[in-house]
Write a structure and sequence with these properties.
single chain, mainly alpha, 59% helix
Length: 188
């Protein structure tokens, strides 16, 4: 047995002192670092989402947290996928397109295939936006034309009303009373 020097005079020399450091032997490989884990509430707060939205993405197969009893435990993979989902949504990609891109990433078939699919999705979205921009420009032009017509008609109506409305002579109090009796059917 090995004798351990130290401040334990009551303990026999053949019993090692308590270990306060790592229990791993000095030549053993280091343990893999633990993967970060997140609760659904933490991810919801970080990405300004509702927990319901995160569960929806899970139901759609975009996220796959591990379970610990009833709790969902999200790892770095799910956190990254939420970032990519939100980026895809900002670009106007459908959930189907986002899923395809995420699936290519998980398949580990190489970045080239994923990038080609992503470029396809971007081209498709750009074409959609170009059509929408043309529609918006046409609508804005139509609105401008209608607005100009309304303003012209308003000016004409205002000018016509001003021309047909002639200033009436001012009446005094006795003329006003007489006029009101005449309209009531009385003559004074």
């Amino acid at each position: 047995m090995v004798s351990w020097p130290g401040p334990f005079p009551d303990v026999p020399a053949d019993i090692p002192p308590p270990m306060t450091a790592s229990r791993r032997p000095p030549n053993a490989p280091a343990a893999a670092p633990r993967e970060a884990s997140y609760s659904i509430s933490e991810l919801a707060a970080e990405f300004a989402l509702t927990t319901r939205a995160i569960r929806f993405y899970e139901d759609e197969g975009l996220l796959a947290p591990r379970r610990q009893r009833q709790a969902r435990i999200y790892g770095e993979r799910e956190r990254t996928r939420i970032k990519l989902i939100l980026r895809g949504k900002r670009l106007g990609l459908s959930l189907i397109e986002i899923r395809e891109i995420l699936d290519l990433h998980d398949a580990r078939e190489g970045d080239r295939r994923q990038l080609l699919r992503f470029l396809e999705a971007l081209d498709h979205r750009r074409a959609q936006l170009e059509v929408q921009r043309a529609d918006i420009e046409a609508l804005l032009s139509e609105i401008g034309s209608i607005e100009r017509d309304c303003r012209r008609r308003l000016r004409e109506a205002t000018a016509e009303r001003a021309a047909t409305t002639s200033p009436r002579p001012a009446r005094g109090p006795s003329a006003a009373r007489a006029g009101s009796r005449e309209s009531d059917g009385h003559r004074g």
